[in-house]
Amino acid sequence: MNAPLIDPFARAITYLRVSVTDRCDFRCVYCMSENMTFLPKKELLTLEELDRMCSTFVGLGVQKLRITGGEPLVRRDIMTFFNGMTRHLESGALKELTLTTNGSQLERFADQLYAAGVRRVNISLDTLDEQKFADITRWGRLPQVLRGVDAAQKAGLRVKINAVALKGFNEEELPTITAWCAERDMDLTWIEVMPMGDLGNEDRLGQYWSLKDVRARYADHYTVSDLAERTGGPARYVRLEETGQKIGFITPLSHNFCESCNRVRLTCTGEIYLCLGQEDMADLRSPLRASPTDNGPLEDAIRAAINLKPKGHDFDYSRQKLDGQMPRHMSHTGG
Ligand code: SAM
Ligand code: SF4
Could you give phi then psi for residue 183, rounded to 5 degrees? Predict the structure, then answer.
């Protein structure tokens, strides 16, 4: 049995988020510019390499895999990868295989994902207004995503909706979105907009809607109780007493959650990022490709990378400027 991955701050790394493509069928304004340039295909890990990479992490004690992107379900033959991971669920080494998706392809894939052992899915959806949805995603169409949500639930997948909180955009929809999730027995998490990627013409400070304000908005409509539950990540939870709903708040900017961080991120090109808000990274593709049959060099490279995991990040909106801003796109590191 291999020694588990423990970082310099004594945090056990048990959660790997994997971006399987930087491509997407949407162009959400806070995530990508309309004319994004994508990586040449040869830069990407092949599906076999992704399998080997993830399997090595599982061998080193990773128990949860979240597949993301870009849009993970637009990667060609992605079900081959999911089906490959099923063996780690069956062996008990992997406790959870899940994904974050924009929902556009779920109508097609929900049943297959369930069959592969996926039980929960996060679907990103910021508005239930068809025109606003088209505006924020630029290329997305709401009815297609709603059919995806239906298909996921019908397949037996537990759905959590992730909504980016955007001032002046979905503020007024808070009760509608909340009620819609309650009716369908779906969890809901609000995410603060983060200063990722090329800001271009988008005014991130103007869009920034503090989740403290979102929570206060809930208190106008419901009795809100704080829950102690943490997942090692940036989410905090409250319960709405009237509906029994659990609402999450992902506040990477206004709270320090780093002390319990259990996760690292793998990009679609095989770079490992140790913190969403820092540049610390290492290349795992070279050691992977250097010895196609021996995982030793890859394991050494993973351990060396984990030793670089920083204590925390420096995002800060509090001084009305974007301190700690990252040049990277979320679609590169995986949200
Ligand atoms: N395409 C998939 C999706 O949209 O769910 C997975 C990848 S996407 C990069 C993952 C998450 O990151 C989505 O929930 C998206 O809303 C969020 N995201 C993207 N850019 C963001 C930003 N600048 N600030 C906060 N969240 C962001
Ligand atoms: Fe695509 Fe997800 Fe980024 Fe939207 S947030 S552009 S769906 S990767």
Answer: -55, -35
